[in-house]
Structure formats: C-alpha cells, structure tokens
C-alpha cells in the first residue's frame, strides 16, 4: 500500500509538477478560455500533460481544477458542472499518476481574480462544494494555492478540516518580499495557516524564483509547518498576444537547489514552467533528503521615523466636519474637452467668490474624454484657493494606475475624492476604449481607506499614511429606493465619509430620500442641477443614466426659450434648494454646460437664504 503523503514527506522531498495553462496555450487552447472544461471535453490532452510532468520527475501532481468552482465557472455558464468537472479531473490525474505519484486536488483562491464583493457565506458554499467533490473522487491531499488573502485561505482551510485525515497544502501569493498582500508578516501568516490546520505552507505564482527565495530565507524551520514553493518561470514579456518566459530550465534547477537549502520540501513550478523546468528540478534534488535545521537571518528592514502627511492646511476642516456645522456647498465644474482651460479657472474663481466651499471635478463623465482633473485640481487649489474634490472612476485605470493616481494626489495635497463606478466606455467619444473596472466602487473605497492606514493596495506597508476623505455616490432615481439605500450602507461600511447624490428634480423625492437615509451616520450632499431649456430637460430625463425629471417639471420648462428658459430653470432649482435645506445642510450644485453663472447665482442664493434665516 502506498505511503500517505504526510508520512512520505517526513523523510523525503516531493517534486511538484509545472504549469498546466502554459502547455495548453502552447497547444492552441485560447488564452482566457475555461481550461477546466477540458477535463470533460478533451481528457486525453490533460492526461498527456500530467504524464509529461511525471516523466520529467514529478511525484506530486495537481488536478486540473484551479478554477473549477461555481464562481469562476459561472463566467462560462458551467456553474452546474462543478462536481462533474472536479471528479473527472481526479480520475484523469489518477490514471496518469500510477502507483508511485501523489495526486492533490487543486483549489485556487477566488478574491484575487474576481473583483467583486463575495460574502463569507457564499465563499463557504463555493469552496465547500469544490472540496467535497475532490475528496469524494479520491485525492491524496488538497492544494490550496494562489491565495492573496490570509483570511480567505483560513476560510478554505476551515472547510477542508472536516476531513480530518486529509493532508492540506496552502500556498499564498505575495508581491512584497516579506509581507502578504493583506499586510501580514509572512512568518505570522504561515503560523496562522498552520494552526488553522494546514500541514504544509508556502508560496506560489506572481514571482519568479529569486523573489520566492528572498521571501523564504527568513522563515524558520522549527515552527511545526513544512515549506513548499512553486515559483513562476520568471517575469514574462508580452509579444504578439502571448506571454513569453525567458528563464532557462538550468536556472530553475539552480533555484530549486537554493530553495532546498532553505528547507523547502515540496518544489514545483507555476506560470511559464514546463516539463523541462521540472526535469531540471528533479535532477538538482536527486538523492537529497529534507533539511530540518538551518540558521535564519532576521528581516532587514530599514527603520525610519514615521511621518504622517496631512494634505492641505492643518486648520482646514474636512467637508464632513464642515457640513455638520453649517450649510456647505459643493459645486461641480466639468474639466474642458479641449486644451483651453482658462474659462474653467474663471468659473472656479467666480464660484469661490460666491461662497462655494469646494469645486468638484468629474473624471471623464459620461465616458467623454476631458482634461485631467488631477492637473486642474492642482490649479484650482493653488491659483484660486478653493478646495478641489476629485471624482475617481473605476472605469479608466487598473489598480496600478489607481494607486499611482492617488499617490500623486497625496503628493499634491489633494485629499478629497468621490469614488464612482463610471459609465461604460462604449457610450463615450472613444467607444473602442477599454472599460477597466478592476474593482467596484465599494472595493475602491475600502482600498483608499487602507492607504490612510499606511498600507498599499498590494498590502505593502508605506512609509507615510494618506489622509483622504472619501465620498460615495448615491442615485435615488430608482424604482427601488430601499435597495439603493442598502448599497449605500455597504459603501459607508467600506469607509465612505460622505455622500453625494445624483441631481433631484422633485420636492416629494427629496422628502423620501431624507426619510430613507435619516439613520445613516455620514452627511449627505443633495444634488441640484439647474435646467437650461426644455430640450435639456428631455435629454437628461430620457438619455442620461441615473436622472429622472418629473412630468410637471418638464412641462414647466416647455414653451420657454433662451434667457426665459434659463430663468425658469433657476426658479425650479431655487425651489428645490429650499426643500433640500429643510432636511440637509449639504448641497451639491451641478453646473450645466460650463454655465457657471447659473451655479454662481444659486450659490449666492443659498448663502443669502442662510444669512436671513
């Protein structure tokens, strides 16, 4: 009878296999397709890859089930095939493994790839379903891999622990050398995984051998856990739609020997590795037995006195602080669509003189290309002396660009942002542009709040802390106001400091919003947008997402033209402002078509009204 995996590894090394996707793509399987579906559609192809790694020297094979969970399979309409796909994968791997090779069921982390809110209950269901299928099919152990979040890994381990005799390998993926992406020191993270029930802990993916070696050289061998490592082949280049990994098998074999000397007992390969890389690992480790003791050097981190930068004058109150004391006015002024920005600055100056507390600048609203709101925000702050509040859309930048953008705002002393999802690019002036949406607005709020704690998006500690005041958008123009409020509650839970609404055009609706949001803990700035004419009202009502204008308001605008139409639009806006001020101290004025004289008049109206009351 074959020795159990945990008994075997006490006195032996294990050679893991290499990448599955890399070989499938090289054989013509399109990048981005569902490789797990091949367990049913083309099992011979999967079996041949397993065999190629076994022949190269691997004695530990992972099933082709990294993404075989309901959440990831749902992208391909295969969420009902979880059990079938996982059982087939185990059968294929068993056929290739023979009697002298262990088979572990691969379970990949979810939250690092699928950028949306998934609650714990759903994660438990998704992981539990896949783990149950793999265990029922007869695996020798479980390989939990590519987990960006320690907490998510702990959840998966807790579900696997109901199978008390099941060996568990749990591998995190890191970008920083000594910390996880959610901020834990690596040794502390490994100890948490071990005490939760993982017998073997380690790292895989995201990094080539060099960074994994640097990460693991500070990990002691006397804490009870066993170490594993599955590095990528290296850092790939991107050529003609393909990822090209250049590091040679010889280099990978050298790296395997170095990892072995650090006490790592399971060594395989991740992205970019091939049977040739695994053959080099096998040759480098031939005849060796596990290392159980070695000297460990401490983490050499440059200790510097922490400095905390507070953007803006120290005495300046944030907008949420200000609005709790008095009526506070935010005015939106859109950046220009061309290179002439002087009218924008003239408008900002006029609005400041009228009494506006902040100028808010959209981020390519309606997916229309406009001048950078970062650059204009700096000019508004320095030249006009008024606080800039910048919109930050999830559409236009990936997470790398988002963090870089926020770091730039920090350097410029711009500390107020409004996080929004953003209209899809296909509706704008460059319909062929990509809509990124790496994360939702809720997740982006949460990540900005991490920057305020001195933690980067990747989990790396930062030398300073940002001090962003974060706003969230709220659209009450929906048939289901309560559902909109529930989503708003999630934004507040994520860390939103204040709320800005879409423009409202109905006094009764303002009352409804006041009642529906009276329990919320953060201030609300209610949007008001003066109408310029009847055609403007019809366009906003019928074509702009998130805006609804009542029949009676559109009827009031009908029949007026030119200056008379603008006067009528201003009268409606003033009536709405009066109603807003019955319930709220925050007003958000939206300037139509750069006609800042309209929002300047409204700003003065609100200021004069308060001075008389």
Could you describe the 3D structure shown?
The chain is α/β, with parallel strands linked by helices. Helix content is 42%, strand content 14%. It has 2 domains: 15-285, TIM Barrel (Alpha-Beta Barrel); 319-531 and 570-612, TIM Barrel, CATH 3.20.20. It is elongated. It comes from Saccharococcus caldoxylosilyticus. Zn(2+) binds at residues 205, 270-271. Pathway: One-carbon metabolism; tetrahydrofolate interconversion.
Brief rundown of the structure:
Helix content is 42%, strand content 14%. It is of the alpha/beta class and 613 residues long.
Under CATH, the homologous superfamily of the largest domain reads Homocysteine-binding-like domain
The appropriate CATH architecture of the largest domain is Alpha-Beta Barrel
Question: Average pLDDT, to the nearest integer?
Answer: 92
DSSP helix fraction:
40-55%
Largest sheet: 8 strands, parallel
The counted number of beta strands is 18
Look at the helices and sheets and give the structural class: alpha/beta
User: How many separate domains?
Assistant: 2
End-to-end separation in angstroms reads 89 Å
β-strand percent reads 5-15%
Name the strands of the widest sheet in spatial order.
1-10-7-6-5-4-3-2
Number of helices: 23
Categorize the overall geometry: elongated
Cofactor: FAD; Zn(2+)
Pfam family, one: S-methyl_trans
GO molecular function: metal ion binding; methylenetetrahydrofolate reductase [NAD(P)H] activity; methyltransferase activity
Keywords: FAD, Flavoprotein, Metal-binding, Methyltransferase, Oxidoreductase, Transferase, Zinc
């Amino acid at each position: 009878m074959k020795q159990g995996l945990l008994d075997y590894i006490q006195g032996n090394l294990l050679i893991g296999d290499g990448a599955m996707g890399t070989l499938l793509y090289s054989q013509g399987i399109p990048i981005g397709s569902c490789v797990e579906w091949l367990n049913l559609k083309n099992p011979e192809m999967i079996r041949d890859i397993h065999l190629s790694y076994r022949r190269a020297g691997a004695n530990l094979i992972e099933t082709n089930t990294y993404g075989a969970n309901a959440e990831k399979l749902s992208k391909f309409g295969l969420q009902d095939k979880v059990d079938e796909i996982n059982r087939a994968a185990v059968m294929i791997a068993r056929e290739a493994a023979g009697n002298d090779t262990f088979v572990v069921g691969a379970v990949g982390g979810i939250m690092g790839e699928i950028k949306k809110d998934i609650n714990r209950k759903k994660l438990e269901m998704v992981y539990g379903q896949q783990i149950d299928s793999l265990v029922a099919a007869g695996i020798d152990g479980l390989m939990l891999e590519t987990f960006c979040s320690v907490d998510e890994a702990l959840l998966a381990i807790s579900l696997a622990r109901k199978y008390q005799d099941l060996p568990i390998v749990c591998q995190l993926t890191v970008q920083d050398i000594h910390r996880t992406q959610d901020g834990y020191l690596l040794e502390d993270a490994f100890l948490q995984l071990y005490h939760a029930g993982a017998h073997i802990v380690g790292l895989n993916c995201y990094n080539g051998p060099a960074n994994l070696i640097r990460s693991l050289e500070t990990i002691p061998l006397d804490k009870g856990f066993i170490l594993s490592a599955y590095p990528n082949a290296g850092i790939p280049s991107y050529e003609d739609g393909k990822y090209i990994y250049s590091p040679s098998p010889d280099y990978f074999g050298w790296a395997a020997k170095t990892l072995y000397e650090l006490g790592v007992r399971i060594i395989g390969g991740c992205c970019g590795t091939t049977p040739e890389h695994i053959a080099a690992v096998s040759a480098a480790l031939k005849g060796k037995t596990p290392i159980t003791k070695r000297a460990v050097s401490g983490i050499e981190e440059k200790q510097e006195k922490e400095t905390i930068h507070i953007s803006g004058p120290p005495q300046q109150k944030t907008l949420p602080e200000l609005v709790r004391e008095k009526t506070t006015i935010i005015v939106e002024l859109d950046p220009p669509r061309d290179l002439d920005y002087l009218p924008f600055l003239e408008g900002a100056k006029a609005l400041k003189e009228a009494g506006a507390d902040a100028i808010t600048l959209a981020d390519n609203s309606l997916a229309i290309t406009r001048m950078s709101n970062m650059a204009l925000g700096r000019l508004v702050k320095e030249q006009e002396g008024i606080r800039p509040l910048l919109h930050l859309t999830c559409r236009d930048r990936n997470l790398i660009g988002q963090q870089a953008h926020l770091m730039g705002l920090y350097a410029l002393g711009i500390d107020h942002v409004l996080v929004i999802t953003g209209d899809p690019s296909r509706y704008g002036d460059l319909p062929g542009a990509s809509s990124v949406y790496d994360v939702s607005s809720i997740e982006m709020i949460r990540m900005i709040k991490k920057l305020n704690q001195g933690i980067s998006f990747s989990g790396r500690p930062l030398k300073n802390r940002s001090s962003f005041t974060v706003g969230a958008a709220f659209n009450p123009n929906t048939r289901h106001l309560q559902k909109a409020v529930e989503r708003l509650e999630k934004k507040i839970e994520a860390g939103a400091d204040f709320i800005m609404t879409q423009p409202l055009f109905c006094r009764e609706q303002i009352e409804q919003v006041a009642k529906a949001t009276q329990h919320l803990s953060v201030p609300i700035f209610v949007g008001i947008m003066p109408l310029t004419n009847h055609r403007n009202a019809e366009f906003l009502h019928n074509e702009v997402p998130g805006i609804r204008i009542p029949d009676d308001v559109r009827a009031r605008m009908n029949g007026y033209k030119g200056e008379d139409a603008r006067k009528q639009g201003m009268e409606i806006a003033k009536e709405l402002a009066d109603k807003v001020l019955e319930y709220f101290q925050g007003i958000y004025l939206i300037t139509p078509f750069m006609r800042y004289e309209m929002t300047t008049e409204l700003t003065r109206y609100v200021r004069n009204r308060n001075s008389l009351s």
